[in-house]
């Protein structure tokens, strides 16, 4: 675990820590080629410099965010924001359904919108093929 993610986890309450450690383990196992770091104050995994998945605590719960998740065609993932992101909220370790998460992570690898270059393209997203 990177030092910055370890520091992020150190500030969590026990319930959130349990969820985050489980999510981190599943993400690392299924996206071993991804780079992970704290980005915009929460843990995020990148493929070739492009953000694909991350999590953080919000008032509503612990949110797992997939930057290209709206393109996954997954009923449980809800649209977030004005681009292609989708989210799922966890409230306890029992909410983690590994089969769903593994499927979503595979789609995160296969279906990506180019957030890495969104500023250069002045807010226009293009699909990575």
How much of the sequence is in beta strands?
25-35%
The succession of helices and strands, N to C, reads HHEEEEEEHEE
CATH topology: Aspartate Aminotransferase, domain 1
Could you list the spans in which at least 5 consecutive residues all have pLDDT below 50? none
Number of helices: 3
Structure description:
The structure is a single chain. It contains 3 helices and 8 strands; from the N terminus they run H-H-E-E-E-E-E-E-H-E-E. The protein is of the alpha+beta class. The protein is globular. The model has no long low-confidence stretch (mean pLDDT 92).
Structural descriptors:
single chain; 129 residues; alpha+beta; Aspartate Aminotransferase, domain 1; six-stranded antiparallel β-sheet; two-stranded antiparallel sheet; 8 strands; 29% strand
Short note summarizing the structure:
The chain is of the alpha+beta class and 129 residues long. It has a single domain (3-128), classed as Aspartate Aminotransferase, domain 1 (Alpha-Beta Complex), CATH 3.90.1150.200. It is built from 3 helices and 8 strands.
Q: What is this structure's SSE topology?
A:
Elements: H1 3-10, H2 14-30, E1 35-39, E2 42-47, E3 50-58, E4 61-66, E5 78-79, E6 86-90, H3 98-110, E7 112-113, E8 127-128
Antiparallel strand pairs: 1-2, 2-3, 3-4, 4-6, 5-6, 7-8
